[in-house]
Write a structure and sequence with these properties.
The chain is built from 20 helices and no strands. The chain is globular, with a radius of gyration of 21 Å. It has 423 residues and is mainly α. Keywords: Cell membrane, Membrane, Transmembrane, Transmembrane helix.
């Protein structure tokens, strides 16, 4: 019988989890900066709603474009060194922000975001299956929940720390520039754009340091091509990922899930502003979304698999997401914003459940399946962009209707979709 993929890491189980946890913290910090960048660049580059949500589009579409290359990267470098490569690419993307800020060129900001997303595509392709198969399959959601806490703690800190610098006095500036002479307005906006330079220099330094630490670490390699007798027998005669319908539907479900997760974190500051709440206050709202997600992850760590199956947690989360989406639409002010923030709780256990359910029984197809799942992350590019278009055509509150069918599909996958098999 072939060894289980996690068998060769049992002796060093704690150390890999600590290292991957640090990795999830870093790319959580980088990812959730978008919630600040959207309103920040909307002001600095004089954008409408749709244009400002190109921030999320440029960042997350990279997952779709680069995911196939991520698999090749991991085959060449392996999991550990592939993670270092991904971190270096993210650092290069952060570096592009410096000339973008100096010239206040929105296209350069978008390029930097795309490069960052490309590096994160490699990191996600490596880290999610790595933590999934680092131990027993039935507790995979618990391990991913631990990683999620690291990710969302960073996601809560990022907009507060960077928002303090980038959105300082943003409401007053927005009011002033409408009556300024053109030359003064350009000078003020150039100063606003330059605020991003120092924070991103610090981010580049941290990314480079972590890349070096991971490269020199004892992080073990995992053989995802090995299959035990049961999996090998089940997969006999299967030649492509299309022989696994539960995976294909899982990719679509992940696409929709990432879309609503990104909306809950990235739209809330701008949405709060549209509800008449000052940006000085609204900059803290993403923290509320992240805290909600962390609470959900803690529930997952305590309850999965002892009290809740992974798919049961996913069912409950999808129904809660549906209820809160409607709450955001039919209430107003702080109550409506609170419903958006609490979507973090509804989203928390969906990602940890989708990965093990979609990768179940994949065996030698795991690396390829992981890259296809990562392609599904481009939902974070398209669905918020759709929200931005609806916000311009309709209004920011009614645009949240886009979430309702997404949560219905997530609920279906938890009920029956993950059980689909090719006959």
């Amino acid at each position: 019988m072939n060894q289980h993929p996690s068998a060769n890491v049992t002796k060093s189980g704690v150390n890999p989890i600590v290292i991957i946890g640090a990795l999830f913290f870093i790319f959580g910090f980088v990812t959730w900066l978008n919630s600040v960048l959207i309103p920040y660049l909307k002001i600095a580059c004089e954008l409408n709603h749709f244009q400002s949500y190109l921030v999320a589009f440029a960042f997350y579409i990279a997952y779709f474009v680069m995911a196939p290359l991520s698999t090749k990267t991991l085959k060449i470098f392996g999991f550990k060194n592939g993670m270092s490569v991904g971190l270096i690419i993210v650092a290069i993307g952060a570096l592009i922000f410096i000339p973008a800020a100096m010239t206040r060129t929105y296209a350069l900001f978008l390029l930097g975001l795309f490069v960052q997303g490309s590096g994160l595509a490699i990191l996600q392709t490596a880290s999610n299956p790595y933590i999934t198969i680092l131990g027993p399959a039935e507790s995979a959601a618990k391990r991913i929940s631990i990683m999620g806490i690291c990710n969302k703690l960073a996601g809560g800190l990022a907009p507060v720390i960077l928002g303090t610098v980038m959105l300082k006095d943003a409401d007053k500036l927005t009011a002033r520039i409408e009556t300024m002479p053109e030359a003064q307005k350009i000078a003020e906006l150039n100063e606003l754009a330059s605020r991003v330079i120092f924070p991103y220099i610090a981010i580049i330094a941290v990314l480079a340091l972590l890349a070096l630490l991971i490269y020199r670490s004892g992080l073990p390699e995992i053989d995802t091509d090995a299959e035990d007798e049961t999996v090998a027998t089940t997969n006999e005669g299967k030649n492509s990922l299309f022989d696994f319908p539960h995976l294909i539907l899982g990719v679509f479900t992940l696409f929709l899930y990432v879309g609503v997760e990104v909306m809950a974190g990235d739209t809330i500051i701008s949405y709060g502003s549209s509800q008449g709440i000052a940006l000085e206050t609204a900059k803290y709202f993403t923290l509320g979304t992240m805290i909600s997600m962390v609470i959900g992850y803690i529930i997952g760590i305590v309850c999965i698999p002892k009290y809740l199956k992974q798919e049961t947690a996913m069912k409950l989360c999808s129904l809660l997401g549906l209820f809160l989406s409607l709450g955001a639409i039919f209430t107003s002010g702080y109550v409506s914003v609170a419903c958006v923030a609490l979507l973090g709780l509804a989203n928390s256990l969906v990602w940890p459940a989708i990965w093990p359910l979609a990768l179940a029984g994949l065996g030698r197809f795991t690396k390829a399946a992981s890259s296809v799942l990562v392609m599904g992350i481009c939902g974070g590019a398209l669905i918020p962009l759709g929200y931005g278009a609806l916000a311009d055509a309709w209004n920011p509150q009614q645009a949240y209707w886009i979430m309702v069918p997404c949560y219905l599909v997530i609920w279906y996958y938890a009920i029956a979709g993950h059980k689909l098999v090719k006959k």
